[in-house]
Write a structure and sequence with these properties.
alpha+beta, 2 helices, 25% helix
Length: 133
């Protein structure tokens, strides 16, 4: 199993769209930075929601942070008690913060591998906002 999500706009992106996409990327980075062996998903949820609180955005809801392997949304998941299980080297975790601004949804989804040095993205696809013409 794999997961990837990016943002595309038709034509030139307006400044609000660029700003909102950057918030999604910053949220993903805040969560991913906490994905180290021994930490739990709780640390990643706290880091992401703290960033959102600083910019005045409600906390993330739903299964935006979970394991992935043979199946989709494997444990640990940020929506049940498994979020308290310590992460181990070699685990794969989906980080997919989804935010809505003015009726527009933004989601950046990546799979990260947990290594001794922290989370490493498993995709080489760039995360920058893509303008389609």
């Amino acid at each position: 199993n794999a997961a990837i999500g990016r943002c595309f706009v038709l034509g030139k992106a307006v400044e609000d769209v660029k700003k909102h996409w950057q918030i999604v990327l910053d949220t993903q980075d805040a969560a991913a930075h906490q994905l180290v062996p021994g930490n739990c998903l709780t640390a990643a949820v706290t880091a992401a929601n703290s960033l959102l609180e600083r910019v005045g955005i409600p906390s993330l809801k739903g299964a935006w942070l979970h394991g992935i392997g043979y199946g989709w949304q494997e444990v640990p998941r940020c929506v049940d008690d498994s979020m308290c299980r310590p992460l181990r080297e070699g685990m794969t975790i989906v980080v997919a913060p989804r935010l809505s601004f003015e009726g527009k949804d933004y989601c950046c989804m990546n799979v990260y591998k947990i290594t001794q040095c922290g989370a490493v993205p498993m995709s080489i696809i760039p995360r920058e906002l893509r303008e389609l013409y």
